[in-house]
Design a protein that fits this description.
Strands 1-2 form a two-stranded antiparallel sheet. Helix 2 packs antiparallel against helix 5. Strand 1 and strand 2 form a beta hairpin. The protein is an all-alpha fold. The protein is globular, with a radius of gyration of 24 Å.
């Protein structure tokens, strides 16, 4: 049997984890849908004299589904290793006959990819019930919600990469912090953001003397890039969009940065988990 990864062993681990957390997951999801149902009642009642359900049902569903996928994924990622947050539970976690990689890869996949799939499927079922009940109650024309249209928005690849970047940050927080991992992860991000902002401001003052001089230097840099044909007016087809060459280069660079940061955070989370099991 492979000591690093074994599929049958991972399935057994998944069954164990699901049996331990299914009630909490079910209550959380049902609670979220119950809240949406209550909010939906007031929206439907307030618009009971309108014949166009599209004006309020569809945007409501898109926002709610985004919240479920985004905030829900971050929340469960931040609690991915809660079984190790007390001495008693951590001992039980260590004694589970599975490798550290299996204990790492299973919550990573379930709190990211599987959560997205589950959210899409379950929310579509909820939207059918939601639209059906309020259509029957207030006489609206029934419409089927198509949440797959969220993938048709511009820069969807960057949005997905941004989601995984946030997920990796909270996943690392779950592996690194024993108490209040979500709160501590948010605080760390806040401190880092302000630290880099302050550092950038100080470096700008040291190198350029003032923000005004920095602006002049950026204008000169812009002229230099333009002379070297970075700011070409020609457009190219990129992910189905017609964009300028400069935007094309910047978007590829941003994708590369997000990919590297996400990978680095996941790798760090693995070694943090490994440290906690030693």
């Amino acid at each position: 049997m492979n000591q690093l990864f074994d599929f049958k062993r991972t399935i057994l681990l998944a069954r164990l984890k699901f049996s331990l957390h299914k009630k909490m997951l079910a209550l959380s999801v049902l609670g979220f849908y119950a809240l949406l149902f209550i909010i939906g009642f007031f929206i439907a009642y307030a618009n009971r004299n309108s014949s166009d359900t599209f004006t309020f049902f569809t945007p409501f569903h898109f926002i709610s589904m985004y919240l479920m996928i985004g905030l829900g994924g971050i929340a469960i990622a931040g609690r991915a290793f809660q079984d190790m947050n007390t001495p008693e539970k951590s001992i039980g976690q260590i004694l589970i006959p599975a490798s550290t990689f299996e204990k790492f890869i299973l919550p990573l996949i379930t709190t990211s990819i599987l959560w997205i799939v589950f959210s899409l499927v379950s929310y579509h079922l909820f939207s059918l019930l939601f639209n059906g009940i309020w259509s029957l109650t207030f006489g609206y024309q029934f419409e089927t919600f198509n949440g797959v249209n969220i993938f048709d928005v511009p820069m969807m690849f960057e949005i997905i990469m941004g989601y995984f970047l946030l997920h990796s940050a909270f996943f690392l927080g779950a592996a690194a912090f024993k108490k209040y991992p979500i709160v501590k992860t948010i605080l760390v991000q806040f401190v880092l953001n302000w630290s880099f902002t302050l550092l950038g401001f100080v470096v700008t003052l040291i190198l350029f003397g003032s923000m005004e001089n920095f602006g002049y230097a950026m204008e000169s840099l812009g002229e230099l890039l333009k002379n070297n044909e970075w700011f070409l007016t020609t457009t190219i087809n990129f992910d189905g969009e017609q964009i300028e060459m400069m935007s094309y280069k910047l978007r590829y660079f941003w994708r590369f940065v997000m990919f590297v940061l996400t990978g680095a955070l996941y790798v760090t989370a693995y070694f943090k988990l490994k440290e906690r099991e030693v």
